[in-house]
Q: What sequence folds into this?
């Protein structure tokens, strides 16, 4: 009899554990569904991240090309500015030379064309020679 009581107690405990086991099975199924959903979400996010990295690489490449082009354009503009600056300084120097040349040209003729002093040779006749001529 004692065995039957033990058996009955064990059967009762098994019956009491059945709802708990069913709940654990339901929880395991829900966790499996959540795991599947999270796996899909991670796959989608990884895909988005990889696409974003590709677009970032494309944008960085375009930025690098644009930077190189801008550097080239900047160098060209600097060369043109230097050329213009050189021409301006040449024009200023030319104007200075012309101005100094005109000043010198105005002064030199004065030295070269000084008003000549007329010199005349006079014949001096002594006063006794005058009297003899007359």
A:
């Amino acid at each position: 009899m004692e065995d039957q009581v033990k058996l009955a107690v064990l059967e009762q405990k098994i019956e009491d554990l059945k709802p708990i086991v069913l709940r654990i099975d339901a929880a395991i199924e829900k966790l499996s569904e959540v795991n599947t959903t999270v796996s899909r979400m991670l796959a989608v996010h990884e895909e988005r991240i990889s696409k974003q990295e590709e677009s970032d690489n494309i944008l960085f490449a375009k930025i690098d090309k644009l930077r190189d082009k801008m550097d080239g354009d900047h160098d060209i503009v600097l060369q043109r500015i230097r050329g213009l600056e050189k021409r301006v300084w040449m024009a200023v120097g030319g104007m200075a030379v012309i101005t100094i040349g005109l000043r010198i040209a105005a002064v030199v003729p004065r030295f070269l064309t000084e008003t000549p002093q007329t010199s005349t040779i006079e014949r001096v006749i002594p006063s006794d020679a005058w009297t003899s001529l007359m």
